[in-house]
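SEQUENCE-TO-STRUCTURE ENTRY
===========================
What this section holds: a protein sequence and its matching fold, both as plain text.
Question of interest: how does this chain fold, as expressed in backbone structure tokens?
***
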Amino acid sequence: GTFPLDRSWIARRPLYVVRPGGELVEFAHRIADAERLREEQARARAALSPEERLRQATLEQAAKMQPRERNSEGGIGSGRPRDWSGRPEPPVHDLAGPWSVGSGWGTFRAVVPGGDRTLYGVTADGRLLWYRHDGSHDGTPHWAGPLEIDQGWDRFARVIGGGGGVVYGMGTDGALHWRLHRQAQDARLPADWEPQRVVDTGWGQLAAAFSG
């Protein structure tokens, strides 16, 4: 993760955390092809001045001295040597961040993902607000929204994001309600929803529920 060049990473998955004070922070789980990443790092080093190379080498040496948790998947910091057996090297995993991307998110009863940069927030009075994080690719606080797209979500004991605009509401009676927001990527008013459906019952006794 010393040279976080976007073209080296074959996948990037944002992760969001709401801190106790309501600050929203983003992490990025990045996955890179090991050989391609080494090539990009070598090119980046070659472009550095002698002073910058010395400073970079000092930082890398200091990082190596820090205790790192072993990663059985061969991620950065795993200590796994390069595989010379001819087998493809496992991808390199890196968790970048955190970046502060918002404030005031502690006021929501629930915050759930809508898929592909979209987040839904349920307010204390049951309003459902839509957000799209346009700065998710670089950890900047650039947003579309908020846009109020529905009401009455305080009737649910729990709200679960299913991705692709799907949001589940678990009723106090244990009924699982399914909703599909058709405009998840570019919300407008009036909001376009599929009709609500009860897809199951008996969910009230579960210790946890989440999308897979």
The first strand starts at residue 9 and ends at 18. Residues 1-5, 68-84 have pLDDT under 50 and may be disordered.
